[in-house]
Every structure is written in structure tokens, then in C-alpha cells.
Specification:
The complex is a heterodimer of chains A (213) and B (297). In chain A, 32% of the residues lie in helices and 16% in strands. Chain A has 7 helices and 9 strands, in the order ββααβαββααβαβαββ. In chain A, helix 6 links the parallel strand 6 and strand 7. The model of chain A has no long low-confidence stretch (mean pLDDT 90). In chain B, 73% of the residues lie in helices and 3% in strands. Chain B contains 12 helices and 4 strands. In chain B, helix 1 runs antiparallel to helix 8, helix 2 packs across helix 8 and helix 5 runs antiparallel to helix 8. The chains are: A alpha/beta (213), B mainly alpha (297).
Chain lengths: 213, 297
């Protein structure tokens, strides 16, 4: 089965491309490809003109960060530790082992928490957070890494109406900071609020083209 | 833990609990933090014990430098045992480490440099302030310092960027990699640190019993260490200490009945592996819930 065929997209720094389409149109598959989790049968991905190897690690090293439709947090770790995980790729490391910088981490975690409005105790295990809270923790984990490319898979799903403006502000801030954002989202108003271009995937295998540049 | 007028055997049990708690904290780092179910922790404990014995008996190395040597040997052996974990799934790690642990034990039981099946006797005692540590009473305090150091090392790791990344690897390795986590480096680090803790505990234990034999590092202690960690709860440092205390206290009561002892170890292994409610904390939660329901009814 062909999930994505002839899909062509370009996202410039400081812009947001919204990817819309029905269930099964390949939105999440597209994010898997763009984050190096899935190697397509054909086609290429370039970041700043270079093609990273097809591994999530290589993509992460190029500054690609993502969230997942179903949040993939570390259940045993506290809320703050989960957010701080997003810093891993930005820390100095020795032989691949990241070295902590406590005061820097604490400040960055605070900023990310505020950006998406997390008011849970920092040590509460992520397993005990609600779905909407887990979505926000994951978005904070993306924000904290100051990514050059952010892939957001339905960041507003399961988030209460009154909390949406705050999250949209967080995404807008990401765009303003110069991140190239790819946003998969069903919420039409959200798309209109932050997206600078829209890519529509109609059904599996259909062709689509979009560019924000 | 200081007991009122402790007898020699109670002190001996206390020292052994501290030694095994250190080994179990090491496995907690490898398995509970980084998600690599190693069944070779007893073998690494053996590497430390033999390293200490060979250095002091055969090469006349002073006890404290020999203990440092045992730590390094445990760490290096741990990293070597961890190499396969870079290529295979956690389930396979369990099998591979189990097999490699057995290979190590067979070598220890037969090689000439380990004293073969006779083991090595006359292992040097540790010295403090120019005095040899001989009795369980002498070893008791240093043993507490040993487990305290292991506990603090694990606590430090748990709060560090490396420790967080290990937990991420255990929970979801692919997701971790999308954040720039390097699972391979972290697994080797975990195996090295866990092996070093097993190694130092092994050296300490060799000095304590002044004798090493491969019998002490076989399948039974290997399973016992796994039970200690699972009983205490994966990822819980204090749980490993509690697990060591429970397993060794029960084991101590069964010394006179070897058949029952093996059966209990086996049964405990099956129960903690098969039931998610295997940890003491989970069991506590279960009892609490039942109790509340009973009260509410």
C-alpha cells in the first residue's frame, strides 16, 4: 500500500505549514518520515540543504523535534523531568552521555511550562497526568529544545477549550523564534490562527504540494 | 539497622544485606533505569570478588587498591556484557546476559588462575587505621558506608540528564531517539556503572569471607538479585535495598533447609516476573485498596 505519493512540501524557518486531511490520509506517516522514524520507499528529506541518514537520532541532531498524536511520555518520570528530556540533544555530552546543567535546565523548564500553561507539581509522575495535560507536557518538551524544525501531531486534541489560546500562543512563539513548524491539526480555527500555508492530504496515495516559502 | 546487642549472625546478615543491596542497586541502574534486564549481575559480583582475591593473594596488592581494582574490573566486564544490548531487544538481553553470566561462572570454576573448583582462600582483609577488619562487627560500619555510597551514586544519576535519558530509553527507545537521546551510549554507561557497583561489592564480600568460590555466583544468587530488584520495584533505588533485606532475611531463615530454600527462590522468581503486582509497593497499594473497599462496604 502506498501511504504518501507525490507529496511535496517545503517549510521555511519561521513559518508554519498545517497538514490537514481525513483519518488515514497519511498525516502521521508524513511526520514519521519527517522525523526519521520511517524510511520511505522513495523520496528525500532535506534539512538546510543536507540529507540526514534515516534514523531518528540523525534527524534529532539536525534540530528536528516532534510530538505524537498519542503522547509518548516517560510514565515513571516527573512532569519536569519529562519536559527537561527535550533538552537532551542541546546539552554537552561526553561519549554520548548528556551532562546536566542544573540552573540552565530549571530556567528552561519554567519557561516551557509557562508557555503552555502547565500547573502540575513538577515531581508528579507523568503517568498520573490527564490526557490533555500529557499533550501539553509533550508540547513543552518540544518547545524547550528550541528546535529548528518542530513536527506537532494534533497538539490541541483533548485540550479543554479555555486552554487552547495558551497552546496556540506557544506554537506561535515557536514560529516567531524562527522554527519551521509542521502542524497536523483537525481544529480549523487553530489552523487559521497559526498556519502560514496548508497542505491537504485527501486520501492515502494522493498527490499534494505545498510550500510556505 | 544497629541492633540492640547484636549477635554475630545478625551482624553477618546485616553485612550481607548491605553487600547485596549494593549489587542490587547496580542492577537497578541497568534494568530499572535503562531497561536492560540483565541476568549477569551475580557474575559481575563474582568478577569483583575474583579480581580482589587474585590481586591480594597472587599479586600481593594491598586491600584498598585491590578494591579499586575490583570496581574497575566489574565496570569493564559490565560494559563488555552490555555490548550485545546495543544490537538486540530487551528480551534477548535477558537471554544473552544469562548465557554470558554462565560462561563467566564456568571459567571461574575451572580456570587455574581462579583456583578452579577449590576457589581461592586466604583473601586479604580490608584494613582501617592500620587494623585488619576481621569480624562481622568490624565490617558492619564499612558495609553501611558501601551501600550508602551506592545509594547516593544512583540518586545522583536519577536526577541527572543521563539518568532521565536512561528512563526514556526504558520507556520508549524510539521516542527517546527523536529527542536526541543516544540509547547505545547510555546502555553501556548503565552496564559499566552497574557492573562497577557489583564489582566493589564483590571485592568487599571476598575480603569479608576471606574466601571466593564460583558456587557463590551461580544461578541462585543471580535470580535472587533479580528478585530483589523486581520486589523493590523497577527504578526504585530504596526498593533495591528493601528487596535485598527481604530476600536475604528469608533466605537466612531457610539456611538449614536447602531444598525449601531453592524452591522459595524459584517461586519468588516466578511470582515477581509473572505478576505486575510483584513489587512490595504494588502489593501495598493492593492491600490498601482492598482495605478501603472493605471499610466502605
Amino acid at each position: 500500500m502506498v501511504a504518501l505519493d507525490g507529496v511535496d512540501l517545503a517549510v521555511a524557518a519561521g513559518t508554519c505549514l498545517a497538514v490537514v486531511g481525513g483519518n488515514g490520509s497519511g498525516k502521521s506517516t508524513l511526520l514519521d518520515v519527517l522525523s526519521g522514524l520511517r524510511r520511505p520507499d522513495g523520496g528525500t528529506v532535506e534539512i538546510d540543504g543536507e540529507r540526514p541518514a534515516w534514523t531518528p537520532t540523525a534527524f534529532a541532531e539536525r534540530g528536528v523535534r516532534r510530538s505524537f498524536q498519542e503522547p509518548r511520555l516517560v510514565p515513571d518520570l516527573g512532569v519536569d523531568d519529562n519536559i527537561a528530556l527535550g533538552l537532551t540533544g542541546r546539552l554537552t555530552s561526553v561519549a554520548g552521555i548528556p551532562i546536566s546543567r542544573r540552573s540552565y535546565e530549571a530556567k528552561a523548564v519554567d519557561r516551557a511550562r509557562n508557555a503552555v500553561g502547565i500547573d502540575l507539581p513538577g515531581r508528579r509522575p507523568a503517568a498520573k497526568a490527564s490526557y490533555g495535560q500529557r499533550k501539553r507536557i509533550e508540547l513543552a518538551r518540544v518547545l524547550i529544545g528550541q528546535p529548528s524544525v518542530a513536527l506537532l501531531d494534533e497538539p490541541l486534541a483533548g485540550v479543554a477549550d479555555e486552554d487552547r489560546p495558551r497552546l496556540l500562543d506557544g506554537i506561535a512563539a515557536l514560529v516567531e523564534a524562527g522554527t519551521a513548524v509542521v502542524l497536523v491539526e483537525h481544529d480549523q480555527r487553530a489552523v487559521e490562527a497559526v498556519a502560514t500555508a496548508v497542505l491537504e492530504l485527501r486520501s492515502a496515495g494522493s498527490r499534494a504540494k505545498a510550500s510556505t516559502a | 539497622m544497629p541492633l540492640a546487642g547484636p549477635s554475630g549472625s545478625a551482624l553477618r546478615l546485616g553485612v550481607n544485606i548491605a553487600i547485596f543491596a549494593t549489587v542490587a542497586i547496580g542492577l537497578q541502574i541497568i534494568w530499572g533505569f535503562c531497561g536492560q534486564p540483565s541476568f549477569a549481575q551475580a557474575a559481575l559480583y563474582g568478577v569483583g570478588a575474583y579480581a580482589f582475591a587474585i590481586l591480594t593473594v597472587r599479586h600481593g596488592v594491598a586491600p584498598w587498591p585491590a578494591l579499586a581494582g575490583a570496581t574497575v574490573c566489574g565496570g569493564v566486564a559490565g560494559m563488555l556484557l552490555g555490548l550485545p544490548a546495543l544490537r538486540v531487544s530487551p528480551e534477548q538481553v535477558a537471554l544473552v546476559t544469562f548465557a554470558l553470566g554462565e560462561v563467566l561462572r564456568v571459567i571461574e570454576a575451572n580456570a587455574s588462575f581462579t583456583g578452579g573448583s577449590g576457589g581461592l582462600a586466604g583473601v586479604a582483609p580490608l584494613t582501617l587505621a592500620g587494623r585488619d577488619l576481621v569480624s562481622a562487627g568490624d565490617f558492619y560500619r564499612p558495609a553501611l558506608v558501601l551501600v550508602a555510597i551506592a545509594y547516593l551514586v544512583a540518586r545522583w544519576l536519577r536526577g541527572s540528564a543521563a539518568g532521565r535519558a536512561m528512563f526514556a530509553v526504558r520507556a520508549d527507545e524510539l521516542a527517546a531517539r527523536t529527542m536526541g537521546v543516544r540509547p547505545g551510549a547510555l546502555k553501556l554507561f548503565a552496564f559499566g556503572l552497574g557492573g562497577a557497583l557489583a564489582g566493589v561489592a564483590g571485592g568487599f564480600s571476598a575480603s569479608f569471607s576471606s574466601f571466593v568460590s564460583s558456587v557463590s555466583f551461580g544461578i541462585v544468587p543471580s535470580f535472587q538479585i533479580v528478585v530483589m530488584v523486581l520486589l523493590g520495584g523497577l527504578g526504585r533505588i530504596g526498593g533495591a535495598v528493601l528487596g535485598a533485606a527481604v530476600v536475604l532475611a528469608v533466605d537466612d531463615q531457610l539456611q538449614s533447609r536447602p531444598g525449601v530454600r531453592l524452591g522459595v527462590t524459584g517461586a519468588a522468581m516466578i511470582v515477581v516476573v509473572l505478576t505486575r503486582a510483584g513489587s512490595l509497593r504494588a502489593a501495598g497499594d493492593l492491600v490498601r485498596v482492598r482495605f478501603r473497599r472493605a471499610v466502605a462496604a
